[in-house]
User: Which sequence fits this backbone?
């Protein structure tokens, strides 16, 4: 198994944890409209399910970017009852999270490689 397969499995595992957390939450609120307050709770659950927020600037940037994209995505469902859009909402959230985690992983790997390359320079 190569490193990219391991990375995909890691990403899928993180997304799966988020889905396992969100499904019971959504089921509990099926008859409610997706209000800004409920959207905020969903965003907090997603961010809370991810690894604890490290103090690294790239991690803070990632969390802020993910939050903004999640808010934008959830806004499209605003005012709909969750029972009317549960599956689509869950698919949209998991797609956003997967893409953002993959992008973050790529950037972190790239930054790490650049640091190693710079560290190896001899003048």
Assistant:
């Amino acid at each position: 198994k190569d490193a990219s397969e391991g990375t995909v499995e890691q990403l899928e595992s993180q997304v799966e944890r988020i889905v396992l957390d969100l499904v019971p939450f959504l089921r509990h609120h099926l008859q409610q409209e997706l209000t800004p307050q409920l959207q905020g709770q969903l965003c907090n659950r997603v961010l809370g399910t991810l690894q604890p927020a490290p103090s690294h600037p790239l991690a803070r940037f990632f969390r802020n970017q993910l939050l903004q994209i999640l808010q934008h995505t959830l806004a499209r469902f605003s005012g709909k009852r969750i029972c009317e859009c549960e599956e689509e909402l869950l698919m949209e959230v998991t797609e956003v999270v997967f893409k953002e985690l993959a992008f973050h992983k790529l950037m972190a790997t790239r930054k790490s490689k650049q640091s190693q390359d710079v560290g190896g320079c001899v003048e």
The chain has one domain: 3-105. The helical segments are 3-28, 36-49, 57-75, 82-119.
